[in-house]
């Protein structure tokens, strides 16, 4: 086989990596190289250095170490039976690309994933070697995200956690049946055990010894996972239920939802048409409501309704329309929890309301300056000079939020 | 009116010192014209009075907000900063009260400065230049909206501590040499230099983009067009957007490809083995076996049926059941020898429902016909018949792409996808389904007549005869 250039390898292995949604570089410990030694720094919130026309940010150099894979997961472009061109980076090549891109301020760091070659342990060992070379030989202080292989031995995952800022294991599909059907070589129980193992190590790494000494940090930016939406038949309620379990049981930092998108050389068991991207968006909104607004999955997708979220209404508004008895809320006296439930009030708005109302009763104009989305919120709150009157209980309230009718096109 | 002109770099400390003196002289905010050096003052402007600075301690949060305001381009930020300072000095100022119009405006301006700063951290692109000593050297050009060079420098100094670099903006040069940062006010012009790594970065950018999900508005809201000029990858964007829908459609229309585990079929002899492993659709798992076509590999005539039936499935040979018997009779009547014809089916597996112990034939649906056409195409390619006879709607669908109104189309010759003639007729099983013996005989004659037409058609094209080898 002819030797392929570094450029061609980068093309193949970036193509192979693009279906991973995560590109976050946030939430790790602060480090810098202001001492003149080493390269790189991390900031609290991460930086997106570029954006692709698909609207996704490019923060990390997101590549696969290799796209050769012994597994045959139906939804994956790199599955063994796919006809895509294959390539493999040497560890030196990955290190070169990472540090040189970093020096030019193209990226925040590296997100390394891999197809499974030879065995899970051998693959994980190779990925660790790359991370070790960056951290030790090149004194790289930027961000590293390693995708770990669930079946790899615990010692190797432990090493990955010490080298990387974030580690992730993809749960792939929301149900065990889905995994069994589409990723027959993967075992949902092993994936969960690996997540549990990471969580245990992370809590262990926070405990000081009796002398007050901290153990080395373990994956300080936490662990995340990704679920593919729309490949199997799981509805939104099932997906949110799975997320609740993941956030609760394994303390994941993020669950990414990736709308299944058509891939070249697709497997015939998959639907060819993609689910609407809006569905993915609604799932992220619901995810946010669960993490920051105190909503339960059962409130967002209640069992007495269809299991799918409304594509026309955002989940918070849909909840408010179903639970009008809880409104209107008085912005000058309501609790934080009650304010967070008002559509159009975000967490920042609520914090600002809580501190601004100490200086006097708030009116409509004040809320506008504070940054609330009042068009959304109007029927659901009262203020010094605002009362929704009969609007809250109006039968046609949902129409106010329905998308504007559009003229059908003749052509 | 007092005109204050502050130096372009080190704005915050200069503002702080001047503002102290103005507060000490009790100059009200509306009496001051704020700006930076280089902006002309009014004709009758007064200088800053030589007063003793007012003693004042600032809360950290207020100092932070004022620092941001001093970076705002134009005079509004500086005068608003002084007004807030004046209000904090003379009365009470609740910074957290966003309902206060001054605070609200200050927050808006500060947010815009923060965003600009964040974008500078993100969108500066270094290009390597020849080093002077052992440390590598890089330069960059950036055009910020606000006067944020002072605030941006520490980020780069902390991140790129082991190299020397220079960032030039239209008004300021930030240089970092041997660990020392220097910020100087200096008019610069944009210089275009190349960097060898940009080609790699651009290929990464275009390949990490997923054409199946185009969201241009989401991109431009975070990476507005004003920054594109200085981003090496931005030149690719219009092309990527233009090609995206075609690339997505290509992926979808390409459809499900053969899995590479399915061995490549290179000859007719290799077909049965490859077909046995077929999992292109779901009907395969129920039947006993896939039934390959049978007949000479160079047959001038190919007859394509619907799918194997109950008997064929067990025997593994096409047309050996009741419908096969009808076909055999008609072939004899038309003087065509069965062993000179390549016989096969549009779908290679038997699709059925089980009723008690019996297997009841079910018509294959369109997706199954589409999936199985892969095998029929192989047979057509290897055998290269002069004429194909399509028996019934399913065969017509597989060969011509249209399975409708067979009764109207029977007896006519159409073309398959390769332009090869296809004679359409009914399936022999339809003769078996005729309600009375008379119409059965009538239909059988019409069927035989169609086959005779086929023989005559072949004779006209000069094909070798397909008569029976053994006389009937």
What are the defining features of this structure?
A: about 400 residues, alpha/beta, 2 domains, six-stranded parallel β-sheet, two-stranded antiparallel sheet, about 10% strand, globular, B: about 475 residues, 4 domains
What does this structure look like?
The complex is a heterodimer of chains A (411) and B (472). Helix content of chain A is 37%, strand content 9%. Chain A is α/β, with parallel strands linked by helices and 411 residues long. Chain A folds into 2 domains: 6-230 and 252-260, TIM Barrel; 276-403, no CATH class. In chain A, strands 3-4-5-6-7-8 form a 6-stranded parallel β-sheet. Chain A has a two-stranded antiparallel ribbon with strand order 1-2. A two-stranded parallel sheet of chain A has the order 9-10. In chain A, helix 2 (91-103) crosses helix 3, helix 3 (120-137) runs parallel beside helix 4 and helix 7 (236-250) packs parallel to helix 8 (277-292). Chain A starts with 5 loop residues before the first helix and ends in a 10-residue tail after the last helix. The mean pLDDT of chain A is 86. Chain B is an alpha/beta fold and 472 residues long. Chain B has 4 domains: 2-119, no CATH class; 124-185, no CATH class; 204-254, no CATH class; 268-460, Uracil-DNA Glycosylase, subunit E (3-Layer(aba) Sandwich). Chain B has 16 helices and 14 strands. In chain B, helix 1 (11-24) links the parallel strand 1 and strand 2 (32-36). In chain B, helix 12 crosses helix 13 (392-400). Chains A and B meet through helix 1, strand 1, strand 2, strand 3 and helix 2 of A and helix 4, helix 5, helix 6, helix 7 and helix 8 of B.
